[in-house]
Design brief:
Layout (H helix, E strand, L loop, with lengths): L26 E2 L16 H17 L6 E8 L2 E12 L4 E2 L6 E2 L5 H13 L28 H5 L14 E2 L6 H9 L16 H15 L3 H10 L8 E2 L13 E2 L2 E2 L4 E2 L2 H4 L1 E3 L1 H12 L3 E2 L2 E2 L3 H7 L27 H4 L6 E6 L3 E8 L4 E8 L11 H16 L27 E4 L5 E5 L5 E6 L4 E3 L5 E4 L5 E2 L6 E10 L5 E11 L9 E8 L8 H4 L5 E3 L8 H6 L3 E5 L8 E5 L9 E8 L2 E4 L14 E6 L2 E6 L2 E3 L5
Helix pairs in contact: 1-11, 2-5, 2-6, 4-5
Length: 639
């Protein structure tokens, strides 16, 4: 359900849980067509051989997590490669086939954007009209919520906090997710003004689900079925709003253990189950500018709007290499851009599966790959982004669209330069899950550490970073380098702002053919020390009381809980750990007190590191204090 460009910081049930692996079988290779509709002159045999080898390597290299992988490659209007590998069920030794359905997570967002374009074509929706016109009951604590438009929701620039995780990933269908998520937003503030910056936001697409249902006068799943899946003949696709009867579904597998069918409650955000073959039918709709087999599904302008750069009007955008579309993660994907090729791309992950979907409009190529999420600590495992990028680039070479693969990024550090003064940049940097500290060293370098729950722990093996002639800080020839960037100005409310970001640069996506720059954390300034009301809550634990026991976090880790503490520096912040987001190690977020019973979001970070922020407040029920974090309610403290 998420976009996550680098391993750290990551998230938990926002995260990709560990998947699994096994042996591979079943291939269907179909002929392709050239631009004139005839048989393609290219068989893509070398590309297919490379892809099969990589998938086999992943299955063998991570057998405890990667059980099944399925892939399809489209040229013009023909699938030139479709193949499923591994097993849908390890315990039953059931082979995956090209009809096996997988949960594709956030790739589902492409269909949400498509739904809005269909409604726009019918004159029911304007992308730039405030959403409150369509959802008069929608409200938030920040009055600027009334400025949020459909375009903001589709381009991750709405300012909504992030992801309502209550009952999101489950082992049984649980209705009412979108209604509950909207209700929870009524007791939260925006994390930034609409249109100020773009940071990955699942709740934006959950609100799209609500908008579609309101305008179409039918539930979201039914609208997509009737207006997209059925017209495209996507017979192996749909939303699991009840236990499936019939069909082949890939089952979750992690750490050598198989789990029951996974259900994803946020439908527009990440709830589609499908096959790569069906996704190629969707790809043809994009390649044909809204037409599928002579049937008009959506306007050509709607397709063009989805593929248009949405970052041009952002006020804060320190990472312009990443170009958001409407529904697409990128409409100029960096890996393909390294070869001079435009690509519309969307990735996705659920608790157990990860996927990638590409459409290359000029070359009329498309690809979808889905599989059990691999162990990120292993070298030979399934990585959807790297596999998809590798297959597409080789297909482009084989068909003659590009002469050769782009060069892999070299990691040779430039010469050392005189170090700038570090006085202003040292301190604590926060993001959505991992407080970091920048420490100056006597030789002019700096070091990074992260909070482990009780102390600051050296990051990246305790290396130091020295200033180089390219303006970045390097540790030898390591692939990742850093710099500090200040953004300042006046927002649309007339308020001045100034934020310092720790920027990260490196081969963060795909197969290593490009470098991307992203903000990793925002420097926190000291606040007034926490008052007595907050001090009395530190060190205590609260337990969730409104989460279903059938959710993935509850099943795998027990009833979710939250703890509140503080850091030794800087003063004035509340350190929150929410166990549902832990991914092998605790995750922490720093909040700023708003009142004696409410704390809010402390950072405004574009792209990914500012996603999924909390707002919490306390209420007294009887003689006991109750804690609310986002959509979760926690019982009275017990520690």
């Amino acid at each position: 359900m998420k976009y996550c460009p680098f391993t750290s910081p990551q998230s938990s049930s926002r995260r990709q849980f560990l998947g699994y692996g096994a042996a591979g079988m079943l291939a269907t290779v179909l002929p392709g067509c050239d631009a004139d509709g005839g048989q393609s002159r290219t068989t893509y045999s070398q590309t297919i051989e490379w892809g099969r080898t990589e998938i086999a390597r992943a299955l063998a290299g991570d057998p405890g997590n990667v059980a099944a992988v399925s892939i399809a490659l489209l040229k013009n209007d023909s699938v030139v490669w479709q193949q499923a590998f591994g097993r849908t069920s390890v315990q039953d030794n059931a082979a995956a086939t090209i009809q096996t359905r997988f949960n594709i997570g956030s790739v589902s967002k492409v269909l949400a954007a498509l739904a809005t374009m269909i409604l726009r074509d019918r004159g029911l929706l304007d992308l730039d009209v405030p959403v409150v016109r369509y959802l008069p009951g929608f409200t938030m604590l920040s009055p600027e919520y009334a400025r949020i438009t459909t375009r903001h929701l589709l381009s991750h620039s709405s300012g909504l906090p992030g992801t309502s995780m209550r009952n999101a990933f489950t082992f049984e269908p649980i209705p009412g997710y979108a209604v509950n998520a909207e209700a929870a937003l009524a007791d939260q503030h925006l994390k930034h003004l609409p249109g100020m910056l773009a940071v990955y936001c699942n709740d934006g697409f959950t609100m799209i689900e609500r908008v579609v249902a309101a305008l179409a006068k039918q539930d979201y799943a039914s609208f997509i079925q009737a207006n997209v899946l059925d017209p495209l003949g996507m017979a192996d696709s749909g939303f699991l709003t009840k236990e499936p009867v019939g069909g082949s579904f890939a089952l979750p597998y992690s750490g050598g253990r198989q789990y029951p069918q996974e259900f994803v409650s946020p439908l527009a955000t990440g709830g589609l189950t499908t096959t790569p073959g069906d996704m190629m039918k969707l790809a043809r709709l994009f390649l044909e500018r809204g037409i599928y087999q002579s049937r008009h599904i959506v306007s050509a302008d709607g397709i063009a709007q989805m593929g248009t750069d949405q970052t041009r009007s952002l006020i804060i955008n320190p990472a312009p290499q990443w170009v958001w579309g409407l529904g697409w993660d990128s409409v100029r994907h960096p890996g393909l851009a390294a070869a001079g090729v435009q690509a519309w791309q969307k990735n996705g992950a659920t608790a157990f599966f990860s996927s990638d979907f590409y459409v290359l409009p000029d070359q009329r190529l498309a690809l979808a790959v889905i599989g059990n999420t691999g162990d990120s600590q292993r070298s030979d495992t399934y990585r959807a982004g790297a596999l998809a990028e590798g297959v597409l680039l080789r297909a482009l070479v084989e068909e003659g669209s590009i002469r050769t693969l782009p060069p892999l990024i070299a990691h040779t550090a430039p010469p050392v330069a005189a170090s700038p003064d570090l006085t202003d940049v040292v301190g604590v940097y926060a993001n959505y899950n991992q407080p970091m500290r920048v420490t100056a060293n006597q030789d002019g370098s700096f070091s990074l550490s992260s909070w482990n729950g009780s102390d600051w722990q050296a990051m990246n093996g305790g290396v130091s970073y020295s200033y180089r002639s390219d303006g970045w800080w390097w540790s030898g020839d390591a692939p990742i380098s850093y710099r500090f960037e200040v953004v300042s100005g006046t927002d649309t409310n007339g308020q001045a702002y100034r934020y310092r970001y720790l920027m990260l640069r490196g081969p963060l996506f795909g197969a290593g053919y490009n470098e991307t720059t992203l903000p990793m954390g925002q420097q926190l300034l000291p606040l007034a020390p926490l008052n007595a009301a907050w001090q009395t809550r530190l060190g205590k634990t609260w337990t969730v009381i409104n989460e279903s026991p059938a959710t993935v976090p509850s099943t795998l880790n027990g009833t979710p809980y939250a703890t509140l503490n503080s850091l030794p520096e800087p003063p004035g912040y509340i350190l929150v750990r929410n166990s549902s987001y832990d991914d092998g190690s605790p995750e922490y977020q720093l909040l700023a007190p708003l009142t004696d019973d409410r704390a809010g979001m402390a950072v405004k970070i574009p792209a990914n590191a500012g996603r999924d922020l909390y707002e919490l407040h306390f209420t007294v029920v009887g003689d006991k204090e109750t804690l609310t974090i986002g959509s979760w309610v926690y019982g009275a403290s017990v520690g």
